[in-house]
Specification:
By secondary structure, this protein is an alpha/beta fold. It has a single domain, classed as Alpha-Beta Barrel (TIM Barrel), CATH 3.20.20. The chain contains 15 helices and 10 strands. It has an 8-stranded parallel beta barrel with strand order 1-2-3-4-7-8-9-10, surrounded by 5 helices. Strands 5-6 form a two-stranded antiparallel sheet. The protein is globular, with a radius of gyration of 22 Å.
């Protein structure tokens, strides 16, 4: 099957770098180092610097009391050397993910507004993850309102930077990505560890009472009567209150089980709902972002990020299970066929949702995808890891619907990152030169502003531009 690409009229090639999570502005040495990094990157013709604008920093103490002092300084340093800014509206906490060296929690007052169901609860029946507010929070709409007020305040304060902002990225979940915190780990107040981490399938994250209620309502809406549901599922439930997410996640994902996820109607229905709820959240986030940035920033492109969750793709026992647990894959996914040119159709519901915003009122809206630098089968020596295939599939599907797609690396370049075939820079260049990816943001500036990686980065830029 051949996928014909229909590129967006807004297409533009960009090479960006990501700033540190935070810069200690009281440390003159670190400030000087950041300035040098900016100058070095400007010298090799990068376009913009991506900066996390932390909700938990700028609105930490009191609701709708904003402190933009830190960003006044950082944005000035970036634009003083002639670079643009790529701000991230970071509504997630910092300190919960790999390489997070800074602790910035979500504003404490936000949890009270969100109400019950504010935290994601996994199959473990854990106390709940505190990195992001759940899409099933009982006061979800009130939280959306606070996100919008934050963005409006950001626009009001930085309106004078409108011509210096390349695009604004909207954080939609853990690590700023549109996903559930399925493979995140965390410690509760007693120090007990929760979560599975990666490279595992992680856990489904829909076991709060509010999430269960959402699933029951969706099934009631779909089937109308419990008799119709029982007929489709082959069950004997008494009422819709007996409908629940999978009670045994590991067994649910065993592909050889005839009652497992995509082998049975109840599994297909569950995955469809789980994926639809994530898409609903992404749609809401883009809707409020468009409404918030309707003044000085009305023509600035908006972006959301989708992670490349690749490490269980070809697992013979539970293929694609990590993507399903994260909410990314719809229920039409291919189990695995590395030669299939039609792979990635399970991402079309998300991609099509983003596409509906692109071009509305003249604004460009696009998607970022991670793991452009990886080769198949090399992640933590996992034989089931297929990131290069996933990058090709998702990129091709975006191209087929005319949606602009750009990329990021998932792991920072180090001494082993070379231009050898199937290595970091070779893979990245492949995505930019032979797939529909229209740009990349490299994680992070300190890893590519000096030494061998600086030279490798310059080669990438020269090849692409």
């Amino acid at each position: 099957m051949f996928l014909a690409f229909s590129f967006s009229l807004f297409s533009s090639k960009t090479i960006n770098v990501m700033a540190p999570l935070m810069i200690d502005l009281t440390d003159t040495g670190k400030v000087s180092d950041f300035r040098d990094q900016l100058k070095n990157c400007k010298n090799i013709d990068i376009n913009a610097v991506s900066v996390d604008v932390w909700w938990g920093k700028s609105e930490s103490d009191t609701i709708r009391h904003f402190d933009w002092t830190y960003y006044d300084s950082v944005f000035k340093m970036i634009t003083d050397v002639g670079l643009q800014i790529q701000p991230i509206m970071s509504f997630h906490a910092c300190g919960c993910n790999v390489s997070d060296t800074v602790n910035i929690p979500i504003p404490s007052w936000a949890w009270g507004i969100a109400g019950s169901g504010a935290k994601y609860v996994s199959e473990q029946n854990d106390p709940g993850n505190s990195e992001v507010i759940s899409v099933w929070a009982v006061n979800y709409d009130s939280i959306l309102q606070e996100y919008q007020k934050f963005m409006e305040a950001f626009q009001g304060h930085f309106a004078g930077y409108a011509d210096k902002i390349q695009a604004i990225n909207i954080s939609c979940g853990p690590a700023g990505e549109l996903r559930y915190p399925s493979y995140n780990t965390y410690n509760d107040t007693s120090g007990h560890s929760w979560g599975r981490g990666y490279p595992t399938r992680g856990y489904l994250e829909c076991y709060s009472e509010e999430a269960k209620s959402s699933f029951r309502n969706a099934m009631s809406h779909k089937y109308g009567t419990i008799l119709a549901l029982n007929t489709a599922w082959g069950t004997s439930l008494v009422s819709f209150s007996d409908v629940n997410p999978p009670s045994d996640g590991d067994n649910f994902f065993q592909i050889k089980n005839p009652k497992a996820y995509i082998n049975a109607q109840h599994g297909k229905d569950f995955i469809e709902w789980y994926n639809n709820e994530l898409i609903r959240h992404g749609r809401e986030m883009l809707t409020i972002a468009c409404a918030a940035f309707n003044g000085a920033f009305s023509k600035i492109p908006l972006e959301i990020k989708i992670p490349g969750i690749h490490w269980e793709m070809s697992d013979p026992n539970m293929p694609r299970s990590a993507e399903v647990c994260a909410g990314l894959a719809a229920n039409n996914f291919h189990t695995w066929d590395s030669s299939s040119p039609a792979g990635g159709t399970e991402y079309l519901p998300i991609l099509n949702m983003v596409k509906t915003f692109d071009g509305v009122s003249g604004r460009h809206v696009l998607v970022y995808f991670t793991c452009l630098e990886m080769s198949n089968g090399y992640f933590y020596s996992s034989p089931y890891s297929q990131p290069a295939a996933l990058v090709s599939w998702v990129g091709s599907q975006a191209g087929s619907i005319g949606l602009s797609i750009k990329g990021e690396n998932a792991v920072a370049p180090n001494g082993g990152s070379t231009w050898d075939e199937h290595s970091f820079w070779w893979n990245t260049n492949r995505a930019l030169s032979s797939l529909p990816y229209e740009g990349i943001t490299i994680l992070r500036i300190g890893d590519v502003a000096y030494g061998d990686q600086y030279g490798n980065f310059q080669k990438l830029i020269n090849n692409y531009k």
